[in-house]
Task: structure prediction
Amino acid sequence: DQQVKQNSPSLSVQEGRISILNCDYTNSMFDYFLWYKKYPAEGPTFLISISSIKDKNEDGRFTVFLNKSAKHLSLHIVPSQPGDSAVYFCAASVGVRSGTASKLTFGTGTRLQVTL
Amino acid sequence: DSGVTQTPKHLITATGQRVTLRCSPRSGDLSVYWYQQSLDQGLQFLIQYYNGEERAKGNILERFSAQQFPDLHSELNLSSLELGDSALYFCASSVGTLQETQYFGPGTRLLVL
Result:
């Protein structure tokens, strides 16, 4: 049962444009969401997170939006740069707000290619 | 560099064998997590240790076991290996038990022939 889904395995965007990566989830108990970026031959790197009590969190060029009613999460990168080319994973956790979080559930990833 | 180290980087072995993967967390982090990433799959949570004790268990097979030592490094033991165990194995660490921000190591690529 894939509780966190990234339905687009790949995305190609021109440099300077906006990249939008999407993530859907099925477990309404998730209360914390994260995005990780992964380059080849490296481990995932934490990018940005959002609590379920918010609908938006911004950090520089990266903004995460949360639509709880649609159980949908998106990551916006503006403007996109060639160095952003990587695999992006969304992840979710239950119980962070209550202090009982036990694990992260990851999506399968979206490969972003930023072209010149 | 996340500060999390994993050894070895690559491991090639045969079916039926046993291997041990090692992870050293970031300085000051008490929690260690193990994940498996198979081809075209997301990261699957295996197990978490906090300050030497098992805290959470995910989709970890009975053939797999882990432990965290007093110096906080962790080892993941995989036995009776099967072809399907070929995967990337990541270790991550965080300060406490809440899995908010985990810092990942570079991974160990295991190939079972």
In short: Chain B touches chain A through 27 residues (CB under 8 Å). The mean pLDDT of chain B is 92.
